[in-house]
Design goal:
The protein is an alpha/beta fold. It contains 14 helices and 21 strands. The radius of gyration is 25 Å and the shape is elongated. Bound molecules: cytidine-5'-monophosphate. Cytidine-5'-monophosphate binds next to helix 12 and strand 16.
């Protein structure tokens, strides 16, 4: 995900998990965001500011009264610049200070001055985490709109086992993406299908296609970040499920039809991004088919067109979006699908275009609606996902 133009302030307090913040800052820097790190004095006992200066490309702030500062009143400048403020790890001590409005160092002073979305990721010994005083502080922070990322459970550095581990970097990154996303899909139920289907010939072999699920997974992730309640019906892929989406794994086109049709009436928006098989073997051999001399013929029959079924069984106000991948006559074929399947939008991409299609992180699509065709420039699949959601939301509001 690209965060170019955004400023992320990362506060690091003095727990052993401070070392994990190095990966977090490195990953945030790679998104193109401007990353500023503020450390407490105790955090500097665990890991040095130099590590974060190298990874963020910016000077690390520690002491409010550092006279070698770049800005006039640094805590105010950083607070004003921040689009999101993430404290990870957040110790019990720092959480207590933030909850009480105490501002006695650079981190606590800056977060008190900041008006942007704030996230804290508590990491500490289980006894400290479960202590009612700490829980009350977390409740206080939540009541002020601060997002609390729940710690993981497991073996802690102190030897205890329980809640209190800093979550994976991917979970922290996702909380930042969500805090920066517009919350314009709140209350909407969105179903996305993704990936290929597998049509079994026998217990060993299947017919499938090259879909990797990247576009559909980006759509599901973007919809979650924008506040939607998302169901992702996915064929077999090797991608991590988007955080916050309900994953329904399926294999064949028939299973996908079952998963989608049984949930369709509860959805406000359905995006059929999956590359569903159009044909399936008429019979599946119960045992592995043994080879013999000569050619093998397999009888195939048509699968159910899931999108076509959705178009014919649409609930009032529901929006339907399909995808179309072609190798020639892209726009003619895609416009025909818009009509035939009775859907609101077809997203067309040509397998032959550089940067488009299976497995790439980018896509080059043309959006077809009743209003006409709108080609989008080449962009990341995450950005394509947001552009599609923008247009679908606009159609819903019309
Ligand atoms: O007609 P065509 O297969 O090219 O249309 C592609 C669109 O239809 C995609 O959105 C795909 O998910 C959907 N589709 C479907 N069921 C099928 C085949 C395709 O829902 N059996």
């Amino acid at each position: 995900m690209q965060l170019t133009g955004k400023t992320v302030v990362v506060g690091i307090s003095g727990g052993i998990a401070a070392y994990k913040a190095a990966q977090l800052v490195s990953d945030l820097h790679k998104t193109g965001a401007e990353v500023h790190v503020i450390m407490t004095k105790n955090a500097c006992e665990f890991i040095t500011p130099l590590t974060f200066e190298t990874l963020s490309g910016n000077r690390v702030s520690v002491d409010t009264f550092d006279r070698n500062f770049e800005y006039h009143v640094e805590h105010v400048s950083l607070a004003k610049k921040a689009d999101v403020f993430l404290v990870a790890p957040a110790t019990a001590n720092v959480l207590a200070k933030i909850a009480a409005g105490i501002a006695d160092d650079m981190l606590t002073t800056t977060i008190l001055a900041a008006r942007c979305p704030k996230i804290v990721a508590p990491a500490m010994n289980t006894g400290m985490y479960d202590n009612p005083i700490n829980q009350r502080n977390l409740e206080t922070l939540r009541s002020y709109g601060v997002q609390v990322v729940e710690p993981d459970s497991g073996l802690l550095a102190c030897g205890d086992s329980g809640r209190g581990r800093l979550p994976e970097t991917s979970v922290l990154l996702e909380s930042v993406y969500r805090a920066l996303a517009k919350q314009d899909l709140c209350g909407l139920r969105v179903l996305v299908t993704a990936g290929p289907t597998r049509e079994a010939l026998d217990p060993v072999r299947f017919i499938s296609n090259h879909s990797t699920g990247k576009m559909g997974y980006q759509l599901a992730a973007a919809a979650v970040r924008r506040g939607a309640q998302v169901t992702l019906v996915s064929g077999p892929v090797s991608l991590a499920p988007p955080q916050g989406a309900q994953l329904v794994p399926v294999s064949s086109a028939a299973e996908m039809f079952q998963a989608v049709s049984s949930r369709a009436s509860q959805q406000d928006l359905i995006i059929k991004c999956a590359a569903v098989a159009d044909y399936t073997p008429a019979t599946t051999a119960p045992e592995k088919m043994k080879k013999s001399e000569g050619a093998l013929s397999v009888q195939l029959e048509r699968t159910q067109d899931i999108l076509g079924w959705l178009g014919a069984h649409r609930t009032p106000g529901q929006l339907l979006c399909g995808f179309s991948m072609e190798t020639r006559d892209l726009l003619e074929n895609s416009a025909a699908k818009l009509e035939r399947k009775k859907v609101d939008m077809i997203v067309a991409n040509n397998l032959r275009d550089a940067g488009a299609g299976f497995g790439t992180d980018t896509n080059l699509v043309t959006i077809l609606t009743k209003a006409g065709a709108e080609p989008l420039p080449l962009m990341g699949k995450d950005e394509v996902a947001n552009q599609l959601l923008d247009r679908l939301l606009a159609m819903r509001q019309r």
